[in-house]
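S.,

Sequence below, as promised.
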Amino acid sequence: MYKTILTALIAGFSLTAPAWAHEGEHHEDHTHAAPHGGVVSTVQQFHFELVSKGNQIKVYLLDDKLKLLPTKGRTGEAIVQMNGKTHRIVLKPNGEAFTGQLDLSKATKYVAVISLRIDGKMYRGRFSQPSHAL
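The prediction came back faster than expected:
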C-alpha cells in the first residue's frame, strides 16, 4: 500500500514539476559563457547559474549583466529529477552562491527546477541535461 501511494505521488510530481518551471516566469537557455563555468537560465530580470562539482551544487544569482547579486536574506530550493528519482534539496546562502548536496555527475540526464525567493517573490529557473531532457 505504501509503495503504491509513494509511486503515485512520484508519478504525479513528475508531471507537475516541469509546469512549475513555467509558472508565471520567463526563462530561456543561454549560449554565452557562464561566469563560474556552469549553465545559465534567464528568469525574468535575473539569471541563475547552476554549477555541479562532486556532490555539491551551487546556484549563483546574477543580474542582467551576469554580475553577482547577494544571497544574504534569500532562500532557495532545488527539485531535481534524475535516475528515476526526485530529489528536493534546500539551497542555503553560502557566500556568493546558494549551495546544496547532490551528485549530478552520475546522471546521464536530469531536470532541475531551481526556486529562489528574492524580496518576497518566488522565481524559478529550469535546467536540464542534456538540454531539454525529460
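Confidence is low (pLDDT under 50) at residues 4-9, 15-27.

Coffee later?
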